[in-house]
Write a structure and sequence with these properties.
Helix content: 10-25%
CATH topology: HIT family, subunit A
Number of strands: 5
Number of helices: 2
Shape: globular
Oligomer: single chain
Distance between the termini: 29 Å
CATH architecture: 2-Layer Sandwich
Bound molecules: guanosine-5'-monophosphate
Strand order of the largest sheet: 1-2-3-5-4
């Protein structure tokens, strides 16, 4: 898998507003926020898209969700927020390093576009 802009952020080769990091993942604010709170939770391991995760990644994906709940508390959106994964070009994925969008701080509509 070729290196993406998120690998450069994880490796601190380019700046970003990092709000959390541990040995498995990094979370930083989206540069083009779609809600008052919009951050991305990204595994250090470079999986290109959710569809290509394997059984070996199950614990990692669970960990990312645990981190999301902790960051939702930290960011003051625990009462209501949306977690989005775009898997594949037709879903709107533009960076091919798996990431979970977390959006909150406003009312959300359904269905999404
Ligand atoms: P996707 O379209 O792949 O689901 O989401 C990619 C997200 O990454 C977009 O919301 C976009 O705004 C964000 N993004 C792209 N490049 C950068 C960057 O260099 N820094 C940060 N913080 N976010 C980025």
């Amino acid at each position: 898998m070729s290196e993406t802009i998120f690998a450069k952020i994880i490796n601190k080769e380019i700046p970003s507003d990092i709000i959390y990091e541990d040995e498995q993942c990094v979370a930083f604010r989206d540069v083009n926020p779609q809600a008052p709170v919009h951050f991305l939770v990204v595994p250090r391991q470079a999986i290109d898209k959710l569809q290509n995760m394997t059984a070996e990644d199950e614990a990692l994906i669970g960990h990312l969700h645990r981190v999301i709940t902790e960051l939702a508390d930290q960011e003051g959106i625990a009462d209501g927020y949306r977690v989005v994964v775009n898997s594949g070009v037709s879903a709107g994925q533009s960076v091919f390093h798996l990431h979970f969008h977390v959006l909150g701080g406003r009312s959300m509509r359904w269905p999404p576009g």
